[in-house]
Design goal:
The protein has a 21-stranded parallel sheet that branches. It has three domains: 5-91, Sandwich (Immunoglobulin-like); 96-271, Pectate Lyase C-like; 312-531, 3 Solenoid (Pectate Lyase C-like). Helix content is 3%, strand content 47%.
Amino acid sequence: MELLRTTTPDCARNARRIMYLVEHIITARSATFEICNGYAWRAPDAHQLYLDGQAVGDAAHNVFTLHELHPDTEHELTVRYAGEHCGLRFRTATQRCSIDIRAFGAVGDGVTDDTAFIQAAISACPAGGVVEFPAGDWLSGPLFLKSDIDLYLARDARLVGHPDIARWPVLPGIVSESSDEPQAYLGTWEGHPNACHAALLNGIGVRNVRIHGDGCIDANASFLTWWSQPKQPFLGWRPRTVYFVHAERLRVSGVKLCNSPSWTVHALFCRDVRIADVRIESPAGSPNTDGIVPESCEQVLIAGAHISTGDDCVAIKSGKAWIASRVRCATRNVQVSNCFMERGHGGVVIGSEMSGGVYDVSIRDCVFTGTDRGLRIKTRRGRGKAAIIDGVQLSNVTMDRVGTPFVVNSFYFCDPDGREPYVGDRRALPVDDGTPTLRNIRVSQVDCMNVAHSAGFVLGLPERPLDGLTLRDYRVRFDADAAPGYPDRAESIQAVARAGLYLCNIRGAALENIDIIGSIGPPITRENAPE
């Protein structure tokens, strides 16, 4: 299966790198690309961009968007850097029509409730059309998208979530036509069907939807509204900022998304999702404000995202055991590249809701800074026999001020049943239908500075060890002033500072060129983790 279309004409080679371009998202007015050059997130200097032979500015980061293009027009893009160049040809999408939301009565003064006017513009937009948000503050409750349209947010346009919680309708967790029909799942909370408030932007069963521009989608959550009640529902559980369910061919590019009530961009049971060149922000301490959450999805691309949240930056999930026993809901083929993750609990996190399985995840060319963990994989007993994580690769990643760069935790506790004694029991228990499986994890070319707690913490199950772990070219330097903290969350895990790499319950742990300096105690500790 081909997720990305890449072209490498006229690419110049030097002793270290090959530079080439990847086309990610093309709309009628914009085009988003990734420069693959061997650097994480950005090269030391900006790349020069030429469109049809004319200079059009610089690309400060490896993923960038060209704005203000014309529909249905062919272009040639050239990127130059340090005497080298590469390029490709592309054609912008066609555009049937453009609808300005002001034509339907929207005011954009930040005070008037524009919900009905914006929804009317979306409902009236023909297939192939664009709904335009010009500059202004467009105050709105939840909006419902339809297939084959674009939402375009111009510069200085802000779609702002209404602060009145009563204006946010509730999606039921499960709906069905009759007892003979298969159920459809709409509302969800942390891997289980539950009634939840509709998102600011909702795409239910849609196809070919693109959200783009260089404006802002501000869900406007605060500690006075949605964040005031993190562990209890309102009329339903907290909403997302953008929520897609049972949808396909989805594109989000260029925009800023901030102040989400809970997860910022959540795709559930979706296929072919691309999110590129976006910025996601929520304050430190804001509960469950994960940045991008693909759950039970296939073919997912996340490229050039700058994410700073109160929780995980990217969280890859596949539901809990109840829903995994009823529908096929594995997450497959996820690519994360050239992203900048800061603050939050983890850079890229897999689980702990992973009962449907997670297969083939690639994370490359990223920067993690100030996160509690870097790559974090978490599961526990009871997740189910389909709870298989198979094929995770992390490569060419730099980390700074990260608590623990690499974590695998098979004893993760969460939810009331996560505190059951069998979850935290370190003895080998019988393998049953609730036993999860972890295999084929490869970590290479990782450079970590100012690490606080542990060089790495890998804890498999004694009855079903992690099957196949490769660590190669893994460099760790510690923060000399680090205070103790927890490598991860599970019963009997102790707070540590500057601990070495801990490997426990692994079948086939291959280490090559591990460079750990400054640990208190041995740099590497193995328990039931032979090569």
